[in-house]
Amino acid sequence: MADTSVEVLLEDFENKDNWDLGGPGAGQTHITTFAEGAPSKEPGVYANGAAGADYRAVALLVKSAAEGLDIELNPKPGSAFTVPGQLEELNLWVRSPHASIRVFARVGVGAEEQELSLGRITANGEWQRAGHELPDPAADVAILGLRIRLAEVIKRAGEVMILLDDLTARTRR
User: Superkingdom of this entry's organism (predicted)?
Assistant: First the structure.
């Protein structure tokens, strides 16, 4: 039987209590949960087969945002995000109305750590999908964190808001 690919939601990604802020932008960033998830997404499926009917997003509110600022999201101890099966692709829905950003995922593959570029998101009020397809599927992958770099800040007063929703992994079983 041939291997099949399936896209699974990484459960509780949108729970702000599972994350710590790090990096140079941590002191000027607040993390919260936003009641609006990406509207154009299809309801996902968790690794255990349960339907993912989640309508929340992680919201980062950045005060005094400046181009080149890095903000890191690191899972709190005991809140690791392990990818079931062999990872082929990692995806994330992002909405960044006040700044163009670059999004990266730190992953552990076995004992090694890698940073994957999920892509550039333009300043836009619409949800955009960022992702990275691995050249070769990898087993024993854990999500060690996300890094957001502000590339171009459009809003000059107040807070820059960045919304993150549905971290998904396309895996081979």
Answer: Bacteria
Burial class (CB in 10 A: 0-12, 13-18, 19+), 92: buried
List the one residue out of 130, 168, 167, 166 whose CA is nearest residue 151: 130
The pLDDT tens digits of the residues spanning 96-134 come to 999 999 999 999 988 899 999 999 999 998 989 999 999
Q: Which amino acid would we find at residue 105?
A: A
* d(C-alpha 50, C-alpha 44), whole Å: 9
Phi, psi of 18 (to 5 degrees): -90, 0
Count CB atoms within 10 A of the CB of residue 30: 12
Q: What is the set of domains in the chain, with CATH numbers?
A: 5-172 (2.60.120.260)
Burial category of 159 from C-beta neighbours within 10 Å (exposed 0-12, middle 13-18, buried 19 and up): middle
Residue carrying structure tokens 């396309």: 170
Instruction: Compute the distance between CA of residue 33 and CA of residue 163 in angstroms, rounded to an integer.
Output: 9
Q: d(Cα 116, Cα 143) in Å, to the nearest integer? A: 11
pTM score, two decimals?
0.88
